[in-house]
Specification:
By secondary structure, this protein is of the alpha/beta class. The protein has 10 helices and 15 strands. The chain has helices at residues 12-18, 47-58, 71-80, 118-127, 162-166, 182-192, 216-227, 244-249, 261-266, 278-285, and strands spanning 2-3, 29-32, 62-65, 86-90, 95-99, 107-112, 132-137, 142-144, 158-159, 170-176, 197-201, 206-211, 234-238, 252-255, 269-270. A 6-stranded parallel β-sheet has the order 1-15-14-13-2-3. Strands 9-8-7-10-12-11 form a 6-stranded mixed β-sheet, covered by helices on one side. It has a 3-stranded antiparallel β-sheet with strand order 4-5-6, with helices on both faces. Helix 8 (244-249) links the parallel strand 13 and strand 14 (252-255). The radius of gyration is 19 Å and the shape is globular. The chain starts with a strand and ends with a helix. Residues 5-24 have low confidence and may be disordered.
């Protein structure tokens, strides 16, 4: 793994080593996480990151957002960096969009992976009774217990009882607790098993659950095949545990400087932190 420095901006030398025979004009497929990568944890995108992302889009590469956020929370990021056509992945791979100005609202959903959340919800509720639970259903609505709301939902969650959530068909389930640590979440998951779903634990006691086998990487791989882009021409940048598969999938996987150890271990390189415009360093290296 290469740790990036100011004198080795975003790995230009490493990119030449890894893709020695590439034509520099070849189109890349570039997958970008949002929170902790393009924006900081207050939701702010710096001018340096925005300008670098816009420049890579303008250069004609296949730039796509790959985020745990839901659709409506992702759309402002797409607009901010100037993507008006192509593809995007949200809900940790649960939803894939095609973007084009001629489409209604500028996009259409081309794939949605749903699952029955009831077994996972029952098992976790028994182990984590004080946690808050939210669910995105197949129609894009959010149902939540205890008036649980988060900016990543993109819409106002509707408060429901737990039984109503059990009867829904889910695209994404979120579990959050202010009373538990990430380690306690991991212990609960190990105890209950969570069979039949894919999950990732966040920075805090936050758990994202998707359909079995669904990750950012699984959705991106389908798009890579659709676009006919060679694996070595893929780039991914991310910082969270839900980015591990994506960073391993990419021909060039770059972890943000503040990423946890297991995320860094999955990457080929480490850039600067989100507060030091790490994503901008990577994006400028692609121009």
């Amino acid at each position: 793994m290469t740790t990036l420095t100011e004198t080795s901006v975003a790995g230009n030398d490493d990119r030449r080593d890894n893709n020695e025979n590439n034509n520099v004009d070849q189109k890349l497929m570039i997958a970008l996480d949002v929170d902790g990568t393009l924006v900081d944890h207050d939701g702010h995108m710096s001018p340096a990151v925005r300008e670098a992302a816009q420049a890579v889009v303008a250069a004609g590469h296949e730039v796509m957002i790959a985020t745990g956020r839901s659709l409506n929370a992702m759309l402002p990021i797409i607009e901010n960096i100037g993507i008006d056509r192509g593809y995007a992945v949200c809900c940790n791979g649960g939803v894939t969009l095609r973007l084009h100005p001629e489409l209604d609202n500028g996009y259409e959903v081309i794939h949605k992976a749903t699952f029955d959340p009831a077994p996972a919800l029952r098992a976790l509720r028994e182990r984590l009774p004080s946690a808050k639970y939210a669910l995105e259903d197949e129609d894009g609505n959010f149902l939540s217990t205890e008036r649980f709301q988060d900016p990543s939902f993109g819409v106002e969650a509707v408060g429901v009882d737990f039984h109503t959530m059990l009867e829904a068909t889910a695209v994404r389930v979120v579990v959050f607790s202010t009373e538990n640590t990430p380690e306690e979440f991991n212990e609960a998951i190990e105890h209950v098993g969570l069979a039949g779903v894919t999950y990732s634990v966040g920075w805090t006691a936050w758990l994202d659950i998707a359909a079995a086998g669904v990750t950012k990487a699984s959705a991106l791989e389908k798009l890579r095949g659709r676009l006919g882009i060679e694996p070595h021409l893929t780039v991914a940048v991310g910082d969270g545990r839900n980015d591990i598969e994506m960073l391993s999938w990419a021909g060039r996987g770059v972890a943000m400087g503040q990423a946890p150890e297991e995320v860094i271990a999955a990457a080929d390189e480490v850039t600067h932190s989100v507060y030091d415009d790490g994503a901008a360093h990577v994006l400028r290296s692609l121009l």
